[in-house]
Amino acid sequence: MEIKQNASAGTTESSDILIMLDPSETNGIQIDLNSSVEKQFGRQIRAKIRETLEKLDVTNVKVNAVDKGALDCTIEARTVAAVYRGAGEETIDWQVIHSWKL
């Protein structure tokens, strides 16, 4: 999926994550993470964001994530929502998303 415009999903409230996406001219996924639990879970948060983007075939994107202790399911849901918004899609096929092997 191609990110065509800036998009975001989530909040900076406790137990949530704000995912902001920017289209990128360079190949690859670049993730900038600001997290209150960076030392304990930073690597896992980045991996979940990257895994979700790869499942949606997003290849060129800059991600700015502000995490406040979100669970993996929240990270995934916020990333999916931001991708669909950035791609200009109006509906999310959640049945496809739920069929992923996590």
UniProtKB/TrEMBL annotation:
<comment type="similarity">
    <text>Belongs to the CitD family.</text>
</comment>
<keyword id="KW-0597">Phosphoprotein</keyword>
<comment type="subunit">
    <text>Oligomer with a subunit composition of (alpha,beta,gamma)6.</text>
</comment>
<dbReference type="GO" id="GO:0005737">
    <property type="term" value="C:cytoplasm"/>
</dbReference>
<dbReference type="GO" id="GO:0016829">
    <property type="term" value="F:lyase activity"/>
</dbReference>
<keyword id="KW-0963">Cytoplasm</keyword>
<dbReference type="InterPro" id="IPR006495">
    <property type="entry name" value="CitD"/>
</dbReference>
<dbReference type="InterPro" id="IPR023439">
    <property type="entry name" value="Mal_deCO2ase/Cit_lyase_ACP"/>
</dbReference>
<dbReference type="Pfam" id="PF06857">
    <property type="entry name" value="ACP"/>
</dbReference>
<keyword id="KW-0456">Lyase</keyword>
<feature type="modified residue" description="O-(phosphoribosyl dephospho-coenzyme A)serine">
    <location>
        <position position="14"/>
    </location>
</feature>
<protein>
    <recommendedName>
        <fullName>Citrate lyase acyl carrier protein</fullName>
    </recommendedName>
</protein>
<comment type="function">
    <text>Covalent carrier of the coenzyme of citrate lyase.</text>
</comment>
